[in-house]
Amino acid sequence: MNLSPEDRALIEACQAGLPLVPQPYTQIADQLGMREADVMQRLEALKTKGAIRRIGIAPDHYKLGMVANGMTVWDIEDAQAEGLGALVGAMEDVTHCYLRPRYMPLWPYNLFAMLHGTDLAEVEAKRDRLKSFLGDAVRACDVLYSTQILKKTGLRLARKGAR
Amino acid sequence: MELDETDLRIINALQSGFPVTSRPFARAADQLGLREDELIVRLAAMKDSRVITRFGPFLDAAAMGGAFCLCAMEVPPDEFDAVTDQVNGFEEVAHNYARDHRLNMWFVLATETPVGIGEAAARIEAATGLPVYQFPKLKEFFVGFRVAA
At what angle do helices B5-16 and B36-48 cross, to 10 degrees? Predict the structure, then answer.
């Protein structure tokens, strides 16, 4: 998808965050020399096209006390993986859930489900629940705990001049 | 900062959607049983204390022609710090985590084009002399982060 210069400018203007004022879209419109209605229409269109996944907030898991995170990985037979993945993704405990490729023999796991908790024991309890839910469909499984955040930056549009 | 039950309700409600309308805080506040100014003050406090890391549109790299890819490496422990510096030095590396597995370094590549993923992975392999395993998502199942409120 190619963004028009206007859409790109709009996304860049929103990137640092929507202003916390009663009429944030008016403020962004003023900044860009657009009309408020135009800003809102463009945002809706970008959502419809899928360029914007959602408008909302992202919390810091650690600040919410969810300090332990485990990437649980499962080897599920391909025929069952999509159906079970959809169920796992809908579970309250699971924050991210994906199907990904295997690398045999190093990596037999195709279903990834991220679990968070206030401590390791909570994550392990959630993992046990997930394991019993998946039952016989599990051929092998593992969990990878993050031991350190080495780098964390969000997705940003590259500055136009830098491309 | 101490979060109360109202803060947690705000976090849960506004993760999935913030309205696009002339007075969006008023509408969101209404649905939460709050006043517009109260919601704005609480959001500002949570942003200041970094409980909320971002507030606004979340972009889909793929829909915009770009790409994301989870990658992993098996890094010899005695080279771990040096390889971390090398990998983090690539601007395409958005997140990088150490994890307790043979594959002990997991990072996300974000590039403006799909071919950029393979190119960045190849440059990381060349710089480190280690294979980069790519784990693109074949399917994503949604996703939200709910806190007990």
Answer: 90
When mean pLDDT is compared across A49-53, A145-149, B144-148, the lowest value belongs to B144-148
* Mean predicted lDDT score pLDDT of chain A: 89
DSSP calls for B65-128: T-EEEEEEE---GGGHHHHHHHHHTSTTEEEEEEESSSS-EEEEEEESSHHHHHHHHHHHHHHH
Supply the pLDDT for residue A154. 55
Give CA angle at A95 (A12, A91), nearest 5°.
140
How far, in Å, CA of A62 to CA of B49, rounded?
12
Specify the domain boundaries for CATH 3.30.70.3460 within chain B: 67-135
Q: To the nearest whole number, what is the mean pLDDT of chain B?
A: 91
CB pairs under 8 A between A and B: 213
Do you find a cis peptide bond into A24, omega within 30 degrees of 0? no
Task: Judge whether B133 is closer than 8 Å to chain A, CB to CB.
Answer: yes
At residue A158, does pLDDT exceed 60?
Answer: no
Task: Flag whether residue A95 sits within 8 Å of chain B, measured between CB atoms.
Answer: yes
Asked casually if ipTM beats, i.e. exceeds, 0.85, the reply is no
Token code pair at residue A8:
């790109």
In three-state secondary structure terms, A145 is: strand
Q: Nearest CB to B143: which of A22, A89, A146?
A: A89
Within a 10 A sphere around the Cβ of A110, how many other Cβ atoms?
22
Residue B55 with chain A: CB contacts under 8 Å = 17-18, 20, 56-58
Domains and CATH numbers, chain A: 5-49 (1.10.10), 68-145 (3.30.70.920)
Q: Does B80 reach chain A within 8 Å, measured CB to CB? A: no
Q: Which top CATH class is B67-135?
A: alpha beta
Cα–Cα distance measured from residue B149 to residue B142, given in angstroms and rounded to the nearest whole number: 21
pLDDT at B27 exceeding the cut of 50: yes
